[in-house]
Amino acid sequence: MLKQLPATHLHNILSLQPIYIFMFNKRIRIKDLLASDKTNYEATVMGWVRTFRNNQFIALNDGSTNNTIQVVAGLGEFDDTVLKRITTGACIKASGQVVASLGKGQKVELKASSIEILGDSDAEKFPLQPKKHSLEFLREIAHLRFRTNTFGSVFRIRQTLAYAIHKFFNDKGFVYMHTPIITASDAEGAGEMFRVTTLPLDGSAPKNEDGTVNYKEDFFGRSTNLTVSGQLEGELAAMAFSDIYTFGPTFRAENSNTTRHLAEFWMIEPEVAFNDLEDNMNLAEEFIKYVIKYAMDNNADDLEFLAQRLADEEKQKPQNERSEMGLIEKLKFVVDNDFERLTYTQAIEILKESNHNKKKKFQYPVEGWGTDLQSEHERYLVEKHFKKPVILTDYPKEIKSFYMRQNDDGKTVAAMDILAPGIGEIVGGSQREERLDKLTQRMEEMNIPAEELWWYLDTRKFGACPHAGFGLGFERLVQFVTGMGNIRDVIPFPRYPKSSEF
Ligand code: 4AD
Ligand code: MG
Fold this sequence. Notes:
The chain is α+β, with helices and mostly antiparallel strands.
């Protein structure tokens, strides 16, 4: 309860006793308290009441773990006025002796000598009752869903994965680049951008003679948008630091109402000078395995909880739809096995010849070379055919971005997509076109304005070199590791069409 201030200065001058002040927040995190067998010492815990049984046993959680500490309010030791306020959702501070627990499921408990109500919670109105709620309902109360076991586990794992990503690249000597969020370019050339403007929307914005909005009068003096990818700026930095990565929010105004798309998502984009497509694949595979293993090593409890949750969910499904592996088994399998690598052309052959295709079971039948793979095709390859993550390379240039390196066949580009079981595409990347003439020619063909990307083209004029990179969708990774079915449940406050609450 008492803390010594670093008062050396005063101490020297005045030769006083050290100064003590009272500290409110001298608490032990519940995870740390539960991790030790130690008993018979004083401790203070703070957290939110999950349940209060028999006017005596409080299950208290502070988000450090899904486990709760049992705080025991001895019969007759506390005022009724206090006991009444110990309700599900209330925030309390409890101090007392840590003692061996007689109850099952926990080694120690806290025998409270004092209980302070920090924040009341009206039990009638608190939306989170101690029972199972649907994920859809919890999405509507995303401001409170952190207090459930499922979301506690998901977001602790998200934290671990974010940390592991930085650690992986930092340990390899990569420079973390902060690329801009507001840009004037469309890195993917797909036109799925959110506009950024300070011009009025009531029709009074300044106009050009032809009636179009005059963006010269806008904040940046031109039309701007939220970035869809930090790649182009990342490439600029790689042309100086050799190895860089980005990790930031990206935005896509695609009207996709699926379990794998968000309008605002986080992306990790490494870019490496002197890497070719194979180096790029090796880096991506090593990276994915590293971060998954890191979560398995550091979030065992949370993963076990989510694995159990998933297993219970699977039991509701008909036998033939159940997955063959449990969550932890699946993660271990990915970490321990090589990803399957093949070209787009080989994949098309496999799909075309599959019984699935012949029996017309694909919604989009696979007929010939050149069209983009639908997610049903990706999932067939990964889940039915190879039963492991797959890296597809060398896609037709028509279905890929302008910056990808053109192969000698004149038809394909040095692209790579990584497809994961249950998720589909988790990584998209490529070797980049470093040859100025080939790049400008492709941009012309695709109507990408060269004058707006003059700075990007400059790197092809001044010391260009082979280089490659990829983008990993962070939420798809979190989805894969946690086994959550919907991407909206692995980001705190999801943005998708018609939804921007919180
Ligand atoms: O394949 P994409 O569009 O590639 C790029 O943006 C490149 N500039 C990356 C690079 O080479 N540096 O997106 C990369 C990844 C996808 O594989 C997917 O995991 C994720 O970003 N992604 C999304 N995640 C959630 N919601 C969306 N709407 C997403 N769109 C892409
Ligand atoms: Mg892609």
